[in-house]
Amino acid sequence: MKLSLFMMFVILWQVSANSYSQETKLKLDISNASVKEVFKAIKSQSRFTFIFNEEDIAQVKAVSLSVNGETVESVLSACLQGTGLSWQVIDDVVIIKPSKSISQQTDLVITGQVLDEKGQPVPGVNVIVVEYNNGTISDVEGNYELKVPDANATLSFSFIGFEKQLIKIDGRSEINVQMKTEVSKIDDVIVTGYYNQTKESFTGAATTISAEDLQAVSNTNVLAALQVYDPSFKIMENNEFGSDPNKLPEIEIRGKGSIPGLSENELRSNPNQPTIIMDGFEVSLEKLYDLDINRIASVTILKDASATAIYGSRAANGIIVVETKAPEKGKLRVNYTFDGTVSAPDLSDYNLLNAEDKLEAERLAGLYETRKSLIDIHGYNDQLYLDNLYNYNLKAVKSGVNTDWIAQPVENSFSHKHSLFIEGGDNVIKYALEANYNDESGVMKESGRKRYSIGSILSYRYKDILFRNHLNVTHVNAPETPYGSFSEYARMNPYNRMKDDNGRYIQQYYNSPTGVRQFNPLYDVENLSNFSKSKYTNFTNNFSIDWSIIEGLRLKGNVSMQLQNKNNQKFRSPESREFVNLSSNEFNLRGSYYVGDSEMFMIDGNVVLSYFKQLNKHFVNAVIGSNLKESKYSSEDYTAQGFPNDRLHYVGFGTQFEKGSTPNGSEETTRLIGAFSNLNYNYDNRFLMDASLRIDGSSKFGSKQRTAPFWSAGLGWNIHNEPFLKDSNFLNEARIRANIGETGGTNFYAYQALTTYEYFTDKHYRYQTGTYVKALGNDELKWQTTIKQNIGLDLALFNNRLMLKGNYYYDTTKDLVSQVTIAPSTGFDSYTENMGDVLNKGFEINLSTTVYKNNSKRIFVNLFGNVRHNTNQILKISDSLKAYNESVMAKQNEEAAKGGSTDYTNSANLISGSPVLQFEEGESMSAIYAVRSLGIDPVTGKEVYLDRFGNSTMIWDARDQVIIGDSQPEFEGYFGTNTNIGDFSINLTFNYRLGGQVYNNTVINKVENANLSYNVDSRVLEQRWTQEGDIKPYRSIRDKSLVRASSRFVEDENSLAMTSARVSYDLKREWIQKIGLRQTKLSVYMGDIFRVSTVERERGTSYPFARSVSFSLQTKF
């Protein structure tokens, strides 16, 4: 059976090769030319490569011929007739050889197999007898057979991506060869999304990560893997949602260049998010987040002006270019990968009070003593009631009740992923089918994300034109946990039991000394039908035409269409705790059902014409192109109320829309058109020059500012190619790069420049509906632009065993665009304007060294590390931002004057003790503002502040706030090791963070402002002032006044984490080929193994972080 399939493959392959040679028609008019010149003329009109011996063709007389529409066979027959030479076509290679070189009966037959460094077969290797130029290629199993007229001849083995091997036959009849990977790797080519450029001629800052490198870090999360290899790429830690699989991460490259979060629209369109390009087209972060990592061929991160300016208005935040795997020619091959992951919740950062200590904290706080506040509010008019309540809770403690509430909503989860890729084809047609199923389970019970994906890839080559189509359909189901927020369980009092004596879950507790009723979140989970879920379906079709017009001239056209539908639903039973206190007359308010639907449609097209020409030592690469993009987004949502009971949870059972609301909807249409050009000049591979120009037009900006130009210019010097260094034994690469340019940002609300209105749908006058101005337009709204400057160094020493890549950047963002909410007295809610300028400057360094290498034993040990430092500075702010700062301080003082108490969670005066975002010229957007604290007065237990005049005071004033720290660390990055020992490989990665500060909200919310109606941090007992003379960091436990933003809670954060570990093993081929497999690889991963930090705070407050162990099986057959 195998033999039959192989013979069929060979026949199809030969038919394909013959088909190409028959389809290629030549037009030649040659007079008195050498045969070598004829070969060159044929090569210029086709893909054929000629292999010949100079001595064989030296005696051939000059030829003259004039043909039009002839095949290569006809031309070769005419040229070589009567010369004693023959020819043979192998794929698109033409071998010229003596006519009798392979026909003699004394020929020696050589057989063998070609393997790579891991022992896997390499198909398609050219095996040539150097002295005679006859040859063959290896088959799909790497085997070859060749007749050789001379037992002392030399065989040449060559294939793209491997070093050429020359082996003397020495009379042997079997020669097996192990190919060695070329020193040049995938990052020798920079993929920009529009065109590719060699690193030797590139003046920009870019990092390319191969599929193998990505999977050395993670088998599931491509974003987490990226930040290991490039320190400029950063995933912002989400301390609230931890490892929630349904929360998209926030990412940035080289800091924040836009003002964050001043409007609801900007929260939906993160203005600091990089642009993501996949196979030449822009996609959403969600699309990349849900992409199967096994489908990725490489990811390139473009950072500076030379690298990104070709994208113009989309380039300010950097570009992430993703290339997916294309089908390779050959017989039908099946690639299957299974990944299984066990995740465990990480609760190590929670240090809550146990039942005994919680009761003691309540006693020390005086909650079981008669106080006027309790009498006034709750009517507790005697000490006896409080004594009985204390004894009731003490009895529970003594009986052994110590409920571990935070262990209830979490579990060890198991996730599994299946990836299938089927490929095959020949030189004319290549095809692939892809399918993926990823069932990711979260550590909060019943939460998860299920991804389904199926697609096809088809490419067809007709002469010099390549057609390619990639169709993909992805469906995602994302159920949220019905257990609610993890913070609810961290607040539950440990002296309360979960169930009553009958084994039923208790619904609510009345035993708090503050009178606050606590509801058991497990009651709703076990007895009610609450749910929250979302789903979406994405349809994507990419089509491209790539035409090699003549040698060096290429025209490529691409068009992409995306359609995505999303649905969100959330049901709260009428028996849920938030509706318990409603009266019988408020039936129509019981229960709620939210439904939200959205639809996105995008069409994106571009045309690129590129030309490459080499003239002696001059290399020119020119590109011109244009693109057009249109995006449409619409959404509608509503909330129904008034459900009869828990079982009737269809939205139609609601009796009305939510009180005070009506169905809501929105629509956005944005258009972008651009024209661009790029010129790259390279002299002698030494001196480099890059220049780009782009003009964009966007519907997002004012009518007077519709278009804007963007540009870049760069220079480079390949020092290692200087004549005096070419023979250097230690310097392999030394390149200096510098560039400057202007890029833009368009991650903003579609109608930000337009005046928008909202209808009074509930009021009418003479059958007409009125409107009011919701947001005032600004036809002068300018483009937000960034001047990027970068200087870089690439260095490789000692046969590439020590490699360094460094960049210093200076990025100035001008005319910041933001929408701010303003006073209703103006007649409208918001206004969008250009608000100022921001600077991001810093450096990033990547260092890699091979400390040990033994090619014969396939052993190497590599160490790597990187570091990033970024400084953010506000250069200029508008009057609107100055007014915003003043209003924030006024609001803080207004709330502080109201006082407030931590006794009752329902207190209307409860305000946050966290700092608020402020903007000041010369300072950072990540600066932490608070009032300076002199500590806790040992006599009174009260906090002493330092006001803006340098005087001590016990009165907190928002106007006394100064910068206490910055959440941006001084240095951060990754380091690790990659080790290979034969068929084993070991990869370890670590993350570090040095020099930044953090505002410790755990101390604020669960120590200082601790509400003892609920459970709190253990530091409430250990580190609070209790009596005169105490030197403690926190106030008296009896002090119920609310604390505000204070320097006491700003802490230096230095951390170290082991983020990933992988051990993999390639099974030996002789073992697996017996069961029909070509390659099998086993891997074990561990994620988020440990983390140590100088800051003690709760992490994952709404959804815990997790640690994981994964098993991966990759096989090909």
UniProtKB/TrEMBL annotation:
UniProt keyword annotations, A-Z: Cell outer membrane, Ion transport, Iron, Iron transport, Membrane, TonB box, Transmembrane, Transmembrane beta strand, Transport
Membrane association type: Multi-pass membrane protein
UniProt xrefs under InterPro entries: Beta-barrel_TonB (IPR000531), Beta-barrel_TonB_sf (IPR036942), CarboxyPept-like_regulatory (IPR008969), Plug_dom (IPR012910), Plug_dom_sf (IPR037066), Secretin/TonB_short_N (IPR011662), TonB-dep_OMP_SusC/RagA (IPR023996), TonB-dep_OMP_SusC/RagA_CS (IPR023997)
Any one of the GO BP annotations: iron ion transport
A Pfam family assignment: STN
Domain named Secretin/TonB short N-terminal: residues: 48-99
Domain of life: Bacteria
Localization (cell): Cell outer membrane
Main localization (coarse): membrane
Protein family per UniProt: Belongs to the TonB-dependent receptor family.
Protein name in the entry: SusC/RagA family TonB-linked outer membrane protein
